[in-house]
Amino acid sequence: MAEGTRGGNGRFIRTANSAKRDAEAAALRACGYSFQRIADELGFASKGKAHEAVTRAFADIPGEEARQAKQLDLERIDRLIEQAWEIMLTTHVAVSNGRVVGKQVGWQKDPDTGETLRDPDGAPLPLYEDVLDDGPRAVAIREIRALLERRAKMIGYDAPAQSRVEVITDDVVNAEIARLTAALGEADAAARPGVT
Fold it and tell me: Nearest to residue 27, comparing CAs of 53, 4, 45?
């Protein structure tokens, strides 16, 4: 589906319908839809076209509304950080084939006598401890870092990259050539003792 009609220069121009569709795409994005889902819902040719529509719609937002949209996104980022933080602080157990993974840490004991408990065949009953899984915590940490980086870009408090610029003039080049020529002359004289 075309995003507009072609103007005299062959480029697409926005129509009222395409502007409305862009606004619908932005509304879906505000609800958390992925660009692929927006493309599927509204019939865009690709998720890239859906992204372009959302970008166009946000560009149409007047200054105050843009500030409010930015504030809304910052609040969402804060909520996502809070949820990821809870995941990071939660203890997670390892699960395999739908069952919690355990490791044997000893034998079950009778709480009164301290004797090892046994099954009907007389074998000692093993005592298991859940194996912990740090995977969810690591994923949460990566998500928090990405959200903080996004927040920093939106607010603009990342320090700009600094670079050093060195200007080399003709005088500097000529001085270096003279120095290297003198060094070569000295090396040549040292290589041929007694020759002047």
Answer: 53
Indicate the SS3 state at residue 116: strand
Residues 67 and 155 in one domain: yes
Phi then psi for residue 110, to 5 deg, are -70, 125
139 shares a domain with 79: yes
Q: Is residue 25 part of a domain?
A: yes
The span from the CA of 143 to the CA of 154, in Å, is 16
Residue located via tokens 């980022």: 77
Closest CA to 123 of 111, 108, 102: 108
CA-nearest of 19, 5, 82 to 54 is: 19
Helices and strands, number each (H, E), in the chain = 6, 6
Tally the domains of the chain: 3
On the question of pLDDT at 161 being above 70, the answer is no
82 and 139 share one domain: yes
Q: Give yes or no for a contact between 54 and 25, defined as CB atoms under 8 angstroms apart.
A: yes
Q: Cα–Cα distance between 66 and 30 in angstroms, integer? A: 13
pLDDT in tens, 2-50: 445 555 566 666 788 888 899 899 889 888 889 999 999 999 999 999 9
- What's 3's DSSP letter? S
* pTM assigned to the model: 0.46
Angle, helices 16-30/35-42, rounded to nearest 10 degrees? 140
